[in-house]
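Researcher: Here's the sequence for the chain we discussed earlier.
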Amino acid sequence: MGKTKHDDELEKAYKELKAFEKDSHKARNELLTFFCGLLMFAAGLFLIFQNTLVSSGYGIGGYGFLHFGSFNLPNGLIMVPLIIGIAMLFLMDRKIFGWIVVGIGIIIILAAIISSVHITWRTTNMYVFILMFGLTVAGGGMMLKELFRKD
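Model: Thanks. This is the structure I predict for it:
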């Protein structure tokens, strides 16, 4: 007996179904790889942050925010641009200049806070060190591989 038109259509549908199953299985594996990479990346960052100590001091070297030779700007004076900017917002018709000065004041305050932070590492063994950075790099690599995959 020869093949009928019906047999050809069944064979074609079967091949399409197998191709669809293969593609959907591949998509699930790509998604699984991405989320495994995300989990590894997050675990590595968690371990890095757990082994980092953050403390604060009084500005750069205990001298205040800015220290150039004998010139010293105490930390209290970093509030002056913010106060002037707020006054400009209420006193001037063109408020853009007041907002610019307020923005500069906020940036100076944030820079003073960040410059007073001291970050140090806890003493750890080599296994934990390799685990921290290995998980972070491997997880980041897995995520990037799936994000920039060319199909």
